Amino acid sequence: MDKRRIGPMIKRIHWGLDKKFNDYLKEYDLTFAQANILRFVKSNNLNGKIVTQRDIEKYLNASNPTVSGLLDRLEDKGYIRRIIDDKDARRRIIVTTEKSANFDVEMMAKLDSFQDLILQDLSLKQQDELFEMLDMITKRIKEIEGGM
């Protein structure tokens, strides 16, 4: 019997989630990557943290041109603004707009509902265990990446 592999399974889950999220996001003219950036910026701003493009690059593990393009499109669509940092004119602080706040409330309700549907066959204990295991796997991958 072949050994079960976690990578292909996680990839199939990711593809399924990505497709469904992108379907939800079409009405907002957003992609999953753009929505992910909005959530990151909003979460950090709520915690009193300033977010720069470099922070987003680290968060997404993406290149400067990739993130710059995502931010350009978010700004064109009115979801974010880039503000010149008073202390360093080369730095741009990323802030969300009112349009982003409205999207966030609506979208999170849809995503919560979708997640509930996916997890409905698991008990609350199993859901907690699943998230703990996924956290452990994520941490382990980061440790391995750091050692390479």
> Low-confidence spans: pLDDT under 50, at least 5 residues?
none
- Specify the helix fraction band: 55-70%
Main beta-sheet annotation: 2 strands, antiparallel
Mean pLDDT: 89
Helix and strand element order: HHHHEEHH
* Net shape: globular
Radius of gyration: 18 Å
Structural classification = mainly alpha
Number of helices: 6
Architecture overview:
This protein is mainly alpha-helical. The protein is 69% helix and 7% strand. It contains 6 helices and 2 strands. It has helices at residues 6-25, 32-46, 53-60, 64-76, 98-119, 124-147; strands at residues 80-84, 92-96. The chain has a two-stranded antiparallel ribbon with strand order 1-2. The two termini are 31 Å apart. The mean pLDDT is 89.
Task: Compile the SSE list and pairings.
Layout: H1 6-25, H2 32-46, H3 53-60, H4 64-76, E1 80-84, E2 92-96, H5 98-119, H6 124-147
Antiparallel strand pairs: 1-2
Helix pairs in contact: 3-4
Summarize the structure.
The chain is mainly alpha-helical. The chain has 6 helices and 2 strands; from the N terminus they run H-H-H-H-E-E-H-H. A two-stranded antiparallel sheet has the order 1-2.
Task: Give structural attributes.
2 strands, single chain, 7% strand, two-stranded antiparallel sheet, 148 residues, mainly alpha
